[in-house]
Amino acid sequence: MKRKRFVITDAGMNDLVRPSLYGSHHQILPVKQEPREEITADIVGPICESSDFLAKDRKIFKPNPGELLPS
Fold first, then answer.
1. Residue among 60, 2, 1 at smallest CA distance from 44
2. Which H/E stretch holds residue 21?
3. Residues noted as catalytic
4. Count of other CB atoms within 10 angstroms of residue 52
5. Average pLDDT, stretch 11-24?
6. Is residue 9 over pLDDT 70?
7. Which of 13, 49, 54, 63 is the most buried (most CB within 10 A)?
8. Contact between 6 and 42 (Cβ < 8 Å)
9. If you average pLDDT over residues 42-64, what whole number do you get?
10. Rounded mean pLDDT of the chain?
11. Which of 50, 49, 39, 48 has its CA nearest to residue 7?
12. pTM greater than the 0.90 cutoff
């Protein structure tokens, strides 16, 4: 069974609708640049709708809890 990893943000489709509506790509990087593990995850918002995502199956650097992730 493949496990899915999620990064939950306080921003969602109500703030940035283009990824869920048009499938647009927005680069997501941690603000603090430091060596870290790369992970594959869905970056999702707090709205609890299936379309509330900023990225799906995206390779990103593993964020720390509470860290800023500008897009």
1. 60
2. helix 18-22
3. 48
4. 19
5. 86
6. yes
7. 54
8. yes
9. 90
10. 88
11. 39
12. no
